[in-house]
Model the fold of this input.
Amino acid sequence: MSSPRTVSDPAAAGEPQAPDLWSACLERLAQELPAQQVNTWLRPLVARVADDGSRVTLAVANRFKLDWVRAQYAGRIGAALQAIAGQPVTLELVLAPREAPAGAARVAAPRVAVPLRTEAVLPPLPEAPLASPEAAPQHHTRLNPALTFATLVEGSANRMARAAALHVASSPGQMYNPLFIYGGVGLGKTHLVHAIGNHLLAERPEAKVLYIHAEQFVSDVVKSYQRKTFDAFKQRYHSLDLLLIDDVQFFANKDRTQEEFFNAFEALLAKKSHIVMTSDTYPKGLTDIHERLVSRFDSGLTVAIEPPELEMRVAILISKARAEGAVMPEDVAFFVAKNVRSNVRELEGALRKVLAYARFNQKDISIAVAREALKDLLNIQNRQISVENIQKTVADFYKIKVADMYSKKRPANIARPRQIAMYLAKELTQKSLPEIGELFGGRDHTTVLHAVRKVAAERQVDSELNQQLHVLEQTLKG
Ligand SMILES: Nc1ncnc2c1ncn2[C@@H]1O[C@H](COP(=O)(O)OP(=O)(O)OP(=O)(O)O)[C@@H](O)[C@H]1O
Done:
């Protein structure tokens, strides 16, 4: 590995001049971002650039800032570095050693780069973090600064919810009040509401924003009841500009809480403060919640978040790996995304396992590594390779419709994947040629035989095809 040099490090005055890569990157980012952001967050970073420019290590003064820089800027920095260097650049964010004075922090050795820990991908919700230390509001927001719009991957599953959330974050108290977001577990509801709060605070640091889980609200009600501190309770909730309340289904059967929430709701709406709620179901699907509340929940905009589709899962994996300073090749992301479908939280779990396995074993991230890392998960799935599954996987891979597998269409961009799917059906299932032909829109067995032979012969000489087949085989076998 090439030895790192330190740049913009006053403590290293005797060392070689800063390689231009980081300075050029700062210049470029200064064109794209407000000067205040560049000066606050990026200029103080202490950079080390490997001699061959393939790796840049940035030291950040503390954990909070590190999370913030990673969440807000890592993707942008990585892209800028790569564009300037004209080659892939690995970006590492590390904590500067504690004893170093602020601004002159020396970079920790790259090997102790932020280790892949659970909270590296998913920073734990601190007790009462502030959205930005520079713009510290005077009350506890309970916002997690890592959960922003920038770190939320957009796809058809969350497009509408995201658009509505962005609108609310930019103009609270106007349209879509209340905003009610619902969807299954681990699909990004909490992330989205934090993003609304963080966005608003970035624009209006003085805004009174509170994120709270419904269970915490219940316990606040109980406490203020017991301590007879209802005035303080009301003062706290009714004075907010933005209330973000997560998992309101937890209000079920809590009559007193529902009453207090109703009061807060009315007070906030009356003063044009915004309320955003999440739930595991749409308002009318909620049980044991007073009708007057349910009808209010539904009186603004109700939007769903769906489970992410394949392309979005691939994008999430690539983006979260990048935020970790790792590069996840697209074929590996495809392999993982095909095999982990339930929700984003599980996708993150799978990613952590793959990155940790690769790191501990000092291997590059590949399908073989992912398969090994996810062995247990893949075994549980008791996979049965069906022709249907092959058709779907191949269609996804080549970005065509599954229906094209049975259609009579002949353009090469469709006929070729169809032949590949036939080949894989023969290779990976027990089906006979006539059975396969039948499953591909009633084609003759000679058509299948032709496809099988053609693909088998071509993969011997066409390394790109061979690689694609390899990815598909690994993905299907799990
Ligand atoms: N579109 C996305 N892009 C990036 N990360 C996402 C996306 N959706 C979800 N995540 C991540 O997945 C994890 C789970 O999301 P989150 O906690 O927001 O889910 P949730 O819908 O609130 O789940 P629950 O109902 O269990 O509370 C979080 O780490 C979140 O950052």
Q: What stands out?
A: Residues 122, 147, 151-153, 158, 183, 185-191, 280, 316, 344-345, 348 surround adenosine-5'-triphosphate (CB under 6 Å). Strands lie at 4-7, 46-50, 55-60, 90-95, 179-183, 209-213, 242-246, 274-279, 301-305. The radius of gyration is 26 Å.
